[in-house]
């Protein structure tokens, strides 16, 4: 089995939307405009191909996104810099095949060059023990809980310290040009300039 992780392409958004909305109760549904927002603003929006077939996607945003999710805003009110995993979806036929682990390895490598923390949340209502255990094995720790205003459901807010980031910052980001090497896997996606919105938090 061959797994390839790459940036999403615009013509694939309908397929991504179908994957998202078939994922079940642990993934919030999206409409076309919400998915387009992610395409325009996500720092990381990559898909997985398994033997040439679209098998999943992962979307993550940095601290400068104009995103209004209550979970994202919780992290923005507590931390100055982070990469936030909003959602990861794997097609049902490919679950258990290691696609999620490949995604987390890839997004961690990306995040380590951009922020000191990788963050996300998992549902506690209904409790998703598989997700809790999965994130625990990747070094995430609970840093808070809240009830989402969008759903009324309680979530566990998780963060993972990225050990390589201080070295990346001192070696590259704190230099006069502040640039990472020009390599595709280090680059954020081209996107519209972020507009910081008032959050009231």
Q: What's this model, at a glance?
A:
This protein is of the alpha+beta class and 201 residues long.
The CA-CA distance between the termini, in Å, is 46 Å
Write the H/E string, N to C.
EHHEEHEHEHEEH
E-strand count:
7
Helix content: 25-40%
CATH class label: Alpha Beta
Q: Walk across the major sheet and give the strand order.
A: 1-2-3-4-5-7-6
InterPro entries: Acyl_CoA_acyltransferase, GNAT_dom, UCP028520
Protein name: N-acetyltransferase domain-containing protein
Domain N-acetyltransferase: 3-160
Pfam family, one: Acetyltransf_1
Account of the 3D structure:
- Pfam families: Acetyltransf_1.
- By secondary structure, this protein is α+β, with helices and mostly antiparallel strands.
- The chain has one domain (3-180): Gcn5-related N-acetyltransferase (GNAT) (Aminopeptidase, 3-Layer(aba) Sandwich), CATH 3.40.630.30.
- It is built from 6 helices and 7 strands, in the order βααββαβαβαββα.
- Strands 1-2-3-4-5-7-6 form a 7-stranded mixed β-sheet, with helices on both faces.
- A hairpin with a 2-residue loop joins strand 2 (44-50) and strand 3.
- It is globular.
- It starts with a strand and ends in a 28-residue tail after the last helix.
- 32% of the residues are buried.
- Mean pLDDT is 90; it is low at 191-201.
């Amino acid at each position: 089995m061959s797994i390839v992780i790459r940036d999403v392409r615009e013509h694939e958004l309908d397929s991504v939307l179908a994957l998202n909305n078939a994922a079940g109760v642990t993934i919030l549904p999206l409409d076309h405009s919400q998915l387009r927002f992610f395409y325009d603003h996500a720092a990381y929006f990559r898909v997985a191909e398994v033997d040439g077939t679209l098998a999943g996607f992962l979307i993550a945003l940095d601290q400068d996104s104009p995103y209004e999710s209550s979970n994202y805003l919780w992290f923005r009110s507590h931390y100055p810099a982070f990469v936030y995993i909003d959602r990861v979806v794997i097609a049902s036929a490919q679950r258990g095949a290691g696609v999620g682990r490949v995604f987390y390895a890839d997004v961690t490598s990306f995040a380590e060059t951009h922020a000191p923390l990788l963050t996300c949340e998992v549902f506690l209502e209904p409790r998703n023990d598989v997700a809790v255990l999965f994130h625990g094995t990747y070094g995430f720790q609970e840093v808070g809980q809240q009830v989402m205003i969008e759903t009324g459901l309680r979530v566990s807010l998780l963060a993972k310290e990225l050990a390589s980031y201080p070295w990346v910052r001192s070696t590259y980001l704190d230099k006069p040009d502040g640039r990472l090497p020009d390599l595709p896997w280090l680059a954020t996606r081209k996107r519209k300039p972020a507009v910081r919105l008032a959050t009231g938090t």
